[in-house]
Amino acid sequence: MEFLSYFFMDFVSQLQSPTLAFLIGGMIIAALGSKLEIPDAIYKFIVFMLLIRVGLSGGIAVRNGNLAEMILPALFSVVMGVLIVFIGRYTLAKLPNVKTVDAIATAGLFGAVSGSTMAAALTVLETQGMDYEPWAGALYPFMDIPALVTAIVVASVYINKQSASAGEDLSKQEDFSKQEYLSKQSVAAGEYPSPQEYPTTRKEYRSQQRITASGYPSKEPERVKIWPIVKESLEGSALSALLLGLALGLVTRPESVYESFYDPLFRGLLSILMLIMGMEAWSRVGELRKVAQWYVVYAVVAPLLHGLIAFGLGMIAHYATGFSLGGVVILAVIAASSSDISGPPTLRAGIPSANPSAYIGASTAIGTPIAIGLGIPLYIAIAHALMGG
């Protein structure tokens, strides 16, 4: 009962907070047909400002703190990024009418991190006065990059296996066609067709049958290159801004500009971002109609499940190294989030055969509201219950 009380109080508090209120408000006005538009340049600027602020605070904290304390939470972040992809690969991908490649891309996007969801969690924790390590925001890339890399690698391996399987089927068909070709030749006793009459190579056979090599998948599997995937993730706008802020916080002393400019603007900019995300979420709802309904189920269950697993790992770090419960909440929230900035373009390039309506629709329309509206209050309620105990 104590846990339910904490959860209900935190959920109501979330409904009244600008974070979720602006998100719901954006969905409502979009549903009512409002013509309100926020220019894309302003959206990108807001995201940049928020992530620079998170990066600066994390860099300053790491510079002034004990780097060894980050090791276990960072390791668990990497584990979660990889684990989430494999959870989706062996659950969502096995459901009816769900294409495996689409499922892997969806899991990759849910394994990657949403900077806006993380910023919302930081705001709520500060509002409630719950302590957390300022460097906790720096856990972002430790989960984000492994998730995207793993998704692209797993999808590439799957596609190559399918291509190899299709190539084997083609070989069997060609062998059958060769036998059929021989059976149709008029062969007298002791006489056989000359070598010139029978195609001696596959290439020659294809040319006679008017089959081009490009018409069939290659049997040679392409090797997956990891570094281009990592490089593309690092070059994404979200991670670039976060890592820039982190680097500046580490090697310079930006406390004065941080306290006078970035920190005061944080909550106001976050509320505008939530409004934009609300409108975007509603616009993506229609895309889910184009794919299997199982994506809706996954988008509701996965964020909460991922967050609970990460919360459990965070508690191990809590008891082993003194990782704060506020930090545990942040780890759970970034695991529950799904990338809304850097993830989609990375997956479009890395898994071009995947359907964006599946993974972007599931993430933006359902996953993000669930992570913010239910996930944040849930994990904070668990932390409060543990603190109360």
Explain what this protein looks like in three dimensions:
It contains 15 helices and no strands. It has 389 residues and is an all-alpha fold. Helix 2 runs parallel beside helix 11, helix 5 (100-111) runs antiparallel to helix 7 and helix 5 (100-111) packs across helix 15. The protein is globular and about 75 Å long.
Q: Secondary-structure blueprint of this entry?
A:
Layout: H1 2-16, H2 18-31, H3 40-64, H4 71-89, H5 100-111, H6 115-128, H7 140-183, H8 202-209, H9 226-235, H10 237-251, H11 255-285, H12 294-321, H13 325-336, H14 343-350, H15 356-388
Features:
389 residues; mainly alpha; 74% helix; 0% strand
Concise summary:
With 389 residues, this protein is mainly α. The chain has helices spanning 2-16, 18-31, 40-64, 71-89, 100-111, 115-128, 140-183, 202-209, 226-235, 237-251, 255-285, 294-321, 325-336, 343-350, 356-388.
Strand tally: 0
> Can you count the helices?
15
User: Span between N and C termini?
Assistant: 13 Å
User: What Rg is obtained from the alpha carbons, in whole angstroms?
Assistant: 26 Å
Helix and strand pattern: HHHHHHHHHHHHHHH
Largest sheet: none
Strand content: under 5%
Report the structural category: mainly alpha
pLDDT averaged residue by residue: 80
Shape, please?
A: globular
List the uncertain runs.
Answer: 186-198, 202-219
Report the helical percentage.
over 70%
